[in-house]
Inverse folding.
């Protein structure tokens, strides 16, 4: 969990921009609910490396005190510090990349006190198009980071090219599964053209929230505490182009799918509404649950109505509880009935808690029914997601039985 400069500021960053964000994490209470990384994205670089040593240099105008000084200041706030580079000759913003300079860059990052590296995929010199090529390129930096002896979270950002979920778990902590997110909720933007990630040759950018969810849906089995994490890209909450319900849905689904929760808004100019969304402790707890299993999409339509209108997701938690989310991806108010038996839940009855309304969601069950019947009647606004935490009423008995074995 943390914050990254790119979604809001792009290349318009400076020492003041980054330090102000770090201070805001503390002053707004975000640090207190788990946000700990402050990450500089692209464009921190000087025009070139050092002519003699070839070490990476920071832009002397944007970062006059240097990266090490900035890292020390962020660490003094009890936070961790991240940086960006690229597994190519240049970064996506046209600065120098790390391809061929992995050892010296990793060593420098460790000396600066870096705790997190986002590693991009632009200008990769043709070293992609197969899992072997991509693996070798990203493994080179993984090995260089390991040699430094400093624990640095390694976040691969190759947009899902060459299916990193199948090979990155052995070398990285997380991997991007799609092209860059854009501050829109739904739609298939022409700049984000791929229907099937496995056959994609142009991953693009300006990807909507629902587009990324479609790509993430079949990948839940690849992620977990030992394997690593599917990264659905940084959060857009608070950047202004989506509605309240859309941002709630965005934040909820990123949390349920165990994607890293990396904020991308201006932390120094947040509305109360934005802050209330990104500090929902119950939703954050789902994301940070020790079991670490991403939710599964049970189905994308209910009773065959308006294919894609409703998405139903179910996840398991370390406590034995379940988390259930229902998303209305249509642009209109929608009412439907969800039969309890359709969910295939392992227990007969549950007590439910609504994680956004923050209230008792009722008593659900095949034996006792929901409001007297075995079904849930849903009334959802356009692009609204409702999320419940379900506790099996017979969980206490089950735990006692397990303890007695």
């Amino acid at each position: 969990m943390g914050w990254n400069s790119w979604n809001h500021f792009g290349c318009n960053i400076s020492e003041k921009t980054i330090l102000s964000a770090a201070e805001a994490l503390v002053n707004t209470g975000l640090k207190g609910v788990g946000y700990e990384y402050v990450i500089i994205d692209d464009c921190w670089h000087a025009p070139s490396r050092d002519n003699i040593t070839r070490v990476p240099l920071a832009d002397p105008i944007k970062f006059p005190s240097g990266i090490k000084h900035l890292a020390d200041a962020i660490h003094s706030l009890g936070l961790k510090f991240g940086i960006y580079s690229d597994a190519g000759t240049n970064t996506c913003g046209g600065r120098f990349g790390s391809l061929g300079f992995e050892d010296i860059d990793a060593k420098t990052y460790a000396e600066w006190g870096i705790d997190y590296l986002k590693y991009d995929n632009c200008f990769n010199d043709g070293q992609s198009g197969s899992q072997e090529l991509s693996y070798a390129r990203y493994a080179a930096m993984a090995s260089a980071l390991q040699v430094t002896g400093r624990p640095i979270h390694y976040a691969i950002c190759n947009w899902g090219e060459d299916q990193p979920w199948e090979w990155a778990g052995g070398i990285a902590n997380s991997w991007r599964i799609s092209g860059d997110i854009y501050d829109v909720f739904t739609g298939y933007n022409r700049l984000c053209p791929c229907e099937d990630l496995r056959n994609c040759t142009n991953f693009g950018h300006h990807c909507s929230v629902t587009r990324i969810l479609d790509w993430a849906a079949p990948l839940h089995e690849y992620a977990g505490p030992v394997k690593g994490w599917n990264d659905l890209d940084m959060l857009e909450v608070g950047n202004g182009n989506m509605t309240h319900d859309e941002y709630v849905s965005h934040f909820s689904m990123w949390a349920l799918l165990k994607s890293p929760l990396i904020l991308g808004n201006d932390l120094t100019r947040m509305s109360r509404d934005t802050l209330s969304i990104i500090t929902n402790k119950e939703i954050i707890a789902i994301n940070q649950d020790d079991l670490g299993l991403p939710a599964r999409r049970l189905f994308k339509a209910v009773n065959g109505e308006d294919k894609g209108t409703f998405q139903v997701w179910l996840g398991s938690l370390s406590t034995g509880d379940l988390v259930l989310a229902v998303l209305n991806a249509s642009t209109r108010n929608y009412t439907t009935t969800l039969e309890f038996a359709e969910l295939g839940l392992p227990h007969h009855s549950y007590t439910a808690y609504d994680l956004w309304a923050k209230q008792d969601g009722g008593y659900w069950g095949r034996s006792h029914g929901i409001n007297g019947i075995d079904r849930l009647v849903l009334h959802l606004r356009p692009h609204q997601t409702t999320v419940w935490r379900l506790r099996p009423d017979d969980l206490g008995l089950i735990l006692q039985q397990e303890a007695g074995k």
About this structure: Residues 290 and 306 are 36 Å apart (CA to CA). DSSP finds ten helices and 16 strands in the chain. The chain has a mean pLDDT of 90. The longest strand covers residues 385-392.
